[in-house]
Amino acid sequence: AQSVAQPEDQVNVAEGNPLTVKCTYSVSGNPYLFWYVQYPNRGLQFLLKYITGDNLVKGSYGFEAEFNKSQTSFHLKKPSALVSDSALYFCAVSYGRRSQGNLIFGKGTKLSVKP
Amino acid sequence: NAGVTQTPKFRVLKTGQSMTLLCAQDMNHEYMYWYRQDPGMGLRLIHYSVGEGTTAKGEVPDGYNVSRLKKQNFLLGLESAAPSQTSVYFCASSKQETQYFGPGTRLLVL
Q1: Of B42, B96, B102, which has the smallest distance from its Cβ to A107's Cβ?
Q2: Which of A6, A33, B46, B86 could be A106's S-S partner, Cβ–Cβ 3.0 to 4.6 Å?
Q3: Which DSSP state fits A108?
Q4: Is beta strand A10-14 parallel, antiparallel or unpaired with respect to A56-58?
Q5: What would the DSSP string read from start to end of B25-79?
Q6: Cross-chain Cβ contact A98/B97 below 8 Å
Q7: Cβ within 8 Å of B, A 21-40
Q8: pLDDT in tens for each of the 110 residues of chain B?
Q9: Which of residues 42-101 of B touch A (CB under 8 A)?
């Protein structure tokens, strides 16, 4: 069965420091992997995705993620965190017919960036 | 281009009442989805549609019905609301892999 795990409920980072939000997955076959961000009282916004190709994927707002097949991970990273990055981050994996985009989401990681 | 819109934004229901949540998208996407978001649970798929006139069950379909009579609209119905259906409901649409989400509907069932 497909599954996604985000092992940290919350990540605290000081502004200007690098940040990492962890995600591991379990899928059969080649995964389609996604990161979404949710600001308070808002819907989810797409950040980036890995379908195929280069293991390092660059996305919106300076975020990037590294696909690691051997460790079945897709960690979200940013070199220098901003206070405005504080939000809830969701990792997701696609299942079923890939073109339908059915997603399984992790439980989310709350990122808190302090000045 | 409004993207994905949802109505209403907030609703309070009494147990046993019915209601319909409306989702509309103006991106000409084939696929549409309804999720619920509960604290510590992430998003869970309720129902989805791969095209006008078609619907399918997701992970947590019980207590909900859906209809996709027009390509741009996807309706989620609660025939007899229960307190366990208190949640935030999100609609999404996609053309291929990437889903685009609406702002959500907060539902409280008393």
Answers
A1: B42
A2: A6
A3: -
A4: unpaired
A5: ESS--SEEEEEEEETTTEEEEEEEEEETTEEEE-SS-TT-EEE-SSTTEEEEEES
A6: yes
A7: 32, 34, 36
A8: 779 999 999 999 999 999 999 999 999 999 999 999 998 888 999 999 999 999 999 989 999 999 999 999 999 999 999 999 999 999 999 987 889 999 999 999 99
A9: 42-45, 48, 50, 58, 90, 92, 94, 96-101
Q: Which residues pair with A24 in a beta bridge?
A: A5, A73
Q: Which of A8, A103, A107, A110 to mutate to test the interface with B (most CBs of B within 10 A)?
A: A103
**C-beta atoms surrounding B76 within 10 Å:** 22
- Tell me which DSSP letter residue A60 carries: G
